[in-house]
Specification:
Oligomer: single chain
Largest sheet: none
Distance between the termini: 31 Å
């Protein structure tokens, strides 16, 4: 699984910036910008999923230890997950707006 993720992390930016490695032998500024945007999106997606999985894991562990506190844990957890996901969506929107 890790090799598949690494393969996509390398292949997708190159797929969208194939024009950058043209006959001129160099990369123009637009191609560098596209490459940077795709790496920014990859970093944001990785950071968002890592934070969400950690938050969900800790919340579910807390609920498993004390089931009576599930109501007090679940609402802040869902709010935190929504805020973490919104940061990834803001990065996605900024990539399309600036690009």
């Amino acid at each position: 699984m890790r090799n598949i993720v690494l393969g996509f992390a390398v292949a997708i930016p190159l797929l969208f910036t194939w024009k950058a490695f043209g006959a001129e032998g160099g990369m123009d500024t637009q191609s560098v910008k596209y490459l940077a945007y795709f790496f920014a999106m990859a970093i944001a997606a990785f950071g968002g999923t890592a934070a969400q999985s950690n938050a969900a894991s800790v919340a579910l562990e807390g609920i498993a230890r004390n089931p009576s506190a599930a109501d007090k844990i679940q609402t802040p957890m869902i709010l935190a997950l929504a805020l973490m996901e919104s940061l990834v969506i803001f990065t996605l929107i900024s990539v399309f707006l600036v690009g």
